[in-house]
Amino acid sequence: MIYIILFIYTIGAGYIFENSDLYKRRFLTHNFNALSYDSIKRFFLYILIVLPMVLVHSFRYGFGADYSGTYQALFYDVKNGIPLPNLEYGYYLLTKFVASFTDDYVWELFAASVLTFVIVLLAIYRNSSMLTVSLSMIFLSAFYFDSTNTVRQELAAAIFIYAVPYIKENKFWKYLACIFLASLFHTSVWLLLPLYFLSKFKINKKILFLVFFIVFLLRNQLNQLVINFVNTSSIYDKYENYLNAGRGTVLAYLIITGGILLIYIFFVKENDKSKLDMWLIYLGFMFSILSAFVPYISRYVLYCLASLIFIVPDMFKNMNPQTKIIPEIMTYLLVGSYTIYIVFIGNWYQAIPYISFLNR
């Protein structure tokens, strides 16, 4: 129930805020991020809108296997000076900083949550073309719930989301700096570096589907390649639990990424600025297919799903104004059904019932 109330409050308040004269005046100035009385008031109201979602997330307790398993052990290992060669340095520093103030590991996860959502919510405030839609996608893309368990990766994903405008603005060095920063929390984010260059090319759908087909034919070889690499490297213990995605996970990923892809193909008008969105959608679908056969690849679907925070508003902006209501409803039904399944039916994150560490 708390998630439903939180969603209704955030979207309702966000909609009122986005349609207020105060918010609309932001776009009447040349530099709408410049400091002024209006900008301070806008930002304060924005904080009031998003603060409840951040606090509920940050004060959670016992979500998923990683909460009381991976991150509890990690916190005390760092605090006690035990070497962790496979832990990314950025997260090590964050944990070390928190451990200098407390002996309770829950504050490590509290700090990670706050940092993740400060980055994502700043990205939305500064760059989203449709504020309320982006806020809704925090919940409906499952980013809100994924980040309760895959903590380090979603922190990296948050930095990637912040960096997305740098791709569209052709600011390579800023994008590279963000990817480097994100890699300090999860090294898998380096796979997203080529997106900067790929986004400059329009997707040839025939060639891309040919690539899908070839990859599918080589799935067994790719499977064995990844298994051999993980088994013979020092990262085996770190990624042993992620070698295979369950059938339910694969099917859910295929439905949401495939559904978004179909909506995009049939209802969205492509332009130069939408190339990046298209690449992310296609890659999300390809990763979803591969996750049934190739170990660990399902983790990369999470980056593509997190990107829906910006992709869906862009999709809505590039739809036919006269008929867009139909694909918009289809999109919300798709992502809404996905969220209901993974959170309330499948209980992937053990988020039901909600428990706070304040009353554990």
TrEMBL record:
Keywords (A to Z) from UniProt: Membrane, Transmembrane, Transmembrane helix
Record keyword Membrane present: yes
Transmembrane segments: 6-23, 43-63, 105-124, 172-195, 207-230, 250-267, 300-317, 329-349
InterPro entries: EpsG-like
Domain of life, source organism: Bacteria
Pfam families: EpsG (PF14897)
Name listed for the protein in its UniProt record: Exopolysaccharide biosynthesis protein
